[in-house]
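For reference, the entry.
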Amino acid sequence: MQRIPSIYFGPSKLGGRGIFTTEDIPEDCLIEICPVIPIPAEQLQTIHGTFLHDYYFLWGENDEQCAIALGFGSLYNHSRQPNARYWCDPDQDIIEIWSIKPITEGEEITVNYNGDPEIQDPVWFEPGGENSKTM
């Protein structure tokens, strides 16, 4: 696991815990390399019935598996205007977190859970998301 030394986790206004920085981070900076624990495709449905449902990443060539990110990987919160993005590398079983704009000291580091910062589709916990219970 590799990460810049200025990041830490703490309570988030977005809910639960989030990842923050004690120093400014420039655009296009590698923030963290997170090893992952891949979970076989046949166990994906099992994860949906557990607490881990909100912490896994889709994984594999066709997103047929899932993976739990170690390090801070599963603690980055979602934003439709993120300041970072993640890159999945199934060949090395890692996820890289990169800044996509300057991040200031004390700011929460966020990613778009859709994988691409440009995709504005709702995610599962937002109204209109895959499993949302309210509109």
